[in-house]
Amino acid sequence: MHKNDVKGVLFDLDGTLADTAPDLIYALNLSLDDAGFSAQPLEKMRHAASHGSLFLVKTAIPDADEALQLSIQQGLLQHYGRINGQYSRLFDDLPELLTLLDQQGIPYGVVTNKPARFARPLVDKLGLTPHLKAMVSGDSTRHAKPHTAPMLLAAQQIAIPPEHILYLGDAERDLVAADNANMHGGVALWGYLSAADNPHLWPAKRQFEHGASLKQFFVE
């Protein structure tokens, strides 16, 4: 994959474009406290932040019964709706990357499995709404990633053929979705990967260690 192959860029949201773990885990801990459980440290839980609210709960209290886990998940979502975006920020070097893409006339957008009721307020608080040419949430199509439906919708929104789009994500489903949609997959190694992840086995064209290396790709 060369820079000239890329005419558009799509990002996963949590753990790729934005560091949202502080908000998610703060909401988790509020819900855990409501139910009489101890708070979980941010660094212990960070790796789970890309995989949805129920996965966060199951990581925090794996031995609890399913009904309790679901109850705490609902509490998490209620708290998260109130604090969404309060502690989130774009990852290092990504604001400069987005400016560079704007300067080069390369359209970009977001494809996330986060529901629109959370995703859209978050990108708004991050100041991204005026700049995104695509905003596809987990409920924008009938299927979420790794299905191709949200990927192809985003390709339509930025008006770039899939084979000329770089899709960046920090989870295997992101790269499977990109590969299935005939996009160039790029692994965001700065994201919420766990020790159990094997990104070298994911169907990706390239791995990026940090935002600076991704930015360098577009100036080569």
Features:
alpha/beta, six-stranded parallel β-sheet, two-stranded antiparallel sheet, 13% strand, single chain, 41% helix, 220 residues, 9 helices
Q: What is the makeup of the main sheet?
A: 6 strands, parallel
The overall pLDDT average reads 96
What's the alpha carbon Rg, rounded to whole Å?
A: 17 Å
The protein's oligomeric status is: single chain
Assign an overall shape.
Answer: globular
The count of DSSP E runs of length 2 or more, i.e. the number of strands, is 8
- Measured as a percent range, the helix fraction is 40-55%
Number of helices: 9
Structural class of the helices, strands and pairings?
alpha/beta
- Give the terminus-to-terminus CA distance: 12 Å
| Largest sheet: spatial strand order | 5-4-1-6-7-8
Low-confidence parts: none
* Order of secondary-structure elements: EEHHHHEHEHEHEHEEH
Strand content: 5-15%
Textual characterization of the structure:
The model has no long low-confidence stretch (mean pLDDT 96). By secondary structure, the chain is α/β, with parallel strands linked by helices. Helix 1 packs across helix 4, helix 3 (53-60) packs across helix 4 and helix 5 packs parallel to helix 9. Helix content is 41%, strand content 13%. It is globular. The two termini are 12 Å apart. The strands form 2 sheets. It has a 6-stranded parallel beta sheet with strand order 5-4-1-6-7-8. A two-stranded antiparallel sheet has the order 2-3. Keywords: Carbohydrate metabolism, Hydrolase, Magnesium, Metal-binding.
Topology (elements, then pairings):
Blueprint: E1 8-11, E2 18-19, H1 21-34, H2 42-45, H3 53-60, H4 66-83, E3 89-90, H5 94-104, E4 108-111, H6 116-125, E5 134-136, H7 149-158, E6 165-169, H8 172-180, E7 184-188, E8 206-208, H9 211-217
Parallel strand pairs: 1-4, 1-6, 4-5, 6-7, 7-8
Antiparallel strand pairs: 2-3
Pfam families: HAD_2
GO molecular function, one term: hydrolase activity
Keywords: Carbohydrate metabolism, Hydrolase, Magnesium, Metal-binding
